[in-house]
Amino acid sequence: MSQSNQRNQAWLLASRPEGEPVKENFRLVEQPIPELKDGEILLRTLYLSLDPYMRGRMDDSKSYAAPAQIDQPMVGGTVSEVAESKHADFKQGDVVLAQSGWQSYAVSDGSGVAKLGDLPHPSWALGILGMPGFTAYMGLMDIGQPKAGETLVVAAATGPVGATVGQLGKLKGCHVVGVAGGEEKCRYAIEKLGFSACIDHHRDDFAEQLAAACPDGIDIYFENVGGKVFDAVFPLLNTAARVPVCGLVSGYSSRELPPGPDRTPQIMGGILKRRIRMQGFIIFQDYGDHYPEFLKAMTPLVEQQKIHYREHMIEGLENAPQAFFDMLKGKNFGKTVVKVAQ
Amino acid sequence: MSQSNQRNQAWLLASRPEGEPVKENFRLVEQPIPELKDGEILLRTLYLSLDPYMRGRMDDSKSYAAPAQIDQPMVGGTVSEVAESKHADFKQGDVVLAQSGWQSYAVSDGSGVAKLGDLPHPSWALGILGMPGFTAYMGLMDIGQPKAGETLVVAAATGPVGATVGQLGKLKGCHVVGVAGGEEKCRYAIEKLGFSACIDHHRDDFAEQLAAACPDGIDIYFENVGGKVFDAVFPLLNTAARVPVCGLVSGYSSRELPPGPDRTPQIMGGILKRRIRMQGFIIFQDYGDHYPEFLKAMTPLVEQQKIHYREHMIEGLENAPQAFFDMLKGKNFGKTVVKVAQ
């Protein structure tokens, strides 16, 4: 492959969403690929990761990371191949983990780019062996502190974080109850992932079903959705319960607070009386140093199939926005990854 | 003193409050003192502690401790003197820490009764060297984890918990900002306790004043009041802030939630994005084992006057209800203790 024959396809952030993101917020462009300077590499995107946190990056608000910039490629983690190298540390053909964003090529000076070696499934570096798996592992182990016999509830139970949290909890001897959207996902969570129960949040009697599945209350709630799942979970939290707050995907596109009454005193009163620990975390900021420890623990679990992992693979960069919208609505089934090139 | 000449004076819980407690919720009675059986002691109350948690015990709701019973003496910690003993471990004249409740005498089998030895100020066992001091110490050290240069905000800054938290934070090198009701208390917090600033929550511009006193944001908020103080603090919490939730006295008598909108998603979003740790604790349930460690650390600090301690002493058991109401409204200045007998 010679870069001169290629042009870069990129999804730019065209505008910031008001509420739910729409396709007009993105614009697909073709651009020439610049000449490499000394010390640079040209990365060809193989897989692009789509994750809920990206919704936050589309806003121009203070958060844990800088917002994506208008008229620049939308941000995102990728598995890429070094197409050309003028950098001493990389050679053509190296497969790497990078932050190329929503585009088919990117030029990099190598900072933040990590060689993946000879992984049997390179795309897993975006999921079970990457950010989502690491998030599940540290949030559950460090904040959740699971103990045998405890009840662990996890929402988005078939997503890359939830499925991993639940299976790790199972290995720790917890009674694991999942929450997912639809009967098919719930069946998968029980039959394939080994959860004790999984409740479909579309059901009218969701809260009652959840309570029935947690006869001893809830000791750990791994929070990644918020909204009505949180509302059903909160009254069931036991004394000394732990709530790692990893995500709140149900509210990412909300523009207004829900109507009253204001339940803040109720939440704070519950935290006090039931001695609940609620803690937000952002995986690489809080736990970056633990990444090697995570890989060492998780890799054999995945290889020995003690932890199952499912990808929701989308073909073609052109389909990235729709796949992203679908993921935010829970229409994915497994980790959403866009296959950009062979 | 012979018990046959004495009768027990006791404040019974006459009814449960609806909202703020009123004097009709209590009834003062005189009762005969029963004959001691073998293995029992008669305790004469010297000092009765009045604490915010007692408001919760007046309700018949699930909490961390069983509610007080109707027509039984109101519960509470006391410093008592052994007036008579048929128990091998206690002799007449021993001064002890007990849970005799709001009454002048109590018969006990000795369980939960601890000898105080020769304390220069026995009533301090109800404050700086007892439950409130222990609460301040563990909540700040274990959950708050103060580091030099950080900003610590503490409400009820001249109360027994708040004053201790702030002074301990000062010793750790924190920038300590108190919140208190009234100029006199604020002056005391700055001049006597050594806080960097103290804001009067009665001021109309309270939130602005607090923000101005915390130019680098807030790293630790020791929560013991809730309500408008929490509302002013929350937006100022820094990334990785810690919030030990020790009490919510402003809301203990609230019967209804405040009007909307419901800020729950905002609170949860803040916890996530700013990676805040919020954790409730109940001192003896969570940290009972650490009491000797606390005494060892705190006693010399108090003796060397590195930690100042102020009591709000009320004379006479008959005045206990009014003193209790005043304390819930913040009219006390220091730790509220009722002197029941010499």
Automatic annotation (TrEMBL), chains A, B:
<dbReference type="InterPro" id="IPR011032">
    <property type="entry name" value="GroES-like_sf"/>
</dbReference>
<dbReference type="Pfam" id="PF16884">
    <property type="entry name" value="ADH_N_2"/>
</dbReference>
<dbReference type="InterPro" id="IPR045010">
    <property type="entry name" value="MDR_fam"/>
</dbReference>
<dbReference type="InterPro" id="IPR041694">
    <property type="entry name" value="ADH_N_2"/>
</dbReference>
<dbReference type="Pfam" id="PF00107">
    <property type="entry name" value="ADH_zinc_N"/>
</dbReference>
<dbReference type="InterPro" id="IPR013149">
    <property type="entry name" value="ADH-like_C"/>
</dbReference>
<feature type="domain" description="Enoyl reductase (ER)">
    <location>
        <begin position="24"/>
        <end position="338"/>
    </location>
</feature>
<keyword id="KW-0560">Oxidoreductase</keyword>
<dbReference type="InterPro" id="IPR020843">
    <property type="entry name" value="ER"/>
</dbReference>
<dbReference type="GO" id="GO:0016628">
    <property type="term" value="F:oxidoreductase activity, acting on the CH-CH group of donors, NAD or NADP as acceptor"/>
</dbReference>
<dbReference type="InterPro" id="IPR036291">
    <property type="entry name" value="NAD(P)-bd_dom_sf"/>
</dbReference>
<protein>
    <recommendedName>
        <fullName>Enoyl reductase (ER) domain-containing protein</fullName>
    </recommendedName>
</protein>
